User: What shape does this take?
Amino acid sequence: MKAKLLNVLTVCVVILAVLSPELVVFGIVWERHLDLVKSQNLAYEVNKTTKNAPDLAPQTEVTHSPQTSIQSSDRNVINQMLTVAEQYKFAAILQWFFLLTPICVGLGILFYDRYLVHRATVLKEQVEMLERLWQQGIEQ
Assistant: This one.
């Protein structure tokens, strides 16, 4: 029973170790896809609104210098790039966590089994030594 359970757990851990990076990447790609679809829908709505009602479109007057608008747009781009970089860092950390956790659990199980085998052999050697001492004590 324990051997079957250990085999099932081992298979589950291996499957999780193989599939976890793919799941993380799929989640990131799916999130980007949803953001793209959302931005396309917003762009379509804006274009639809400005074509249907050009009188209602806001009239903007440029009262500041072009250099200020360039600096603010550069700041926006930099902020967006930092946000994307933070998301990728988090995704990389999450990916390594999901990859290393099953591996560490599997290694822990393997080392624990080896430890139990070692303890059994040491105990067996001690019992054999005590039996030899006992036999020597009886013979004397």
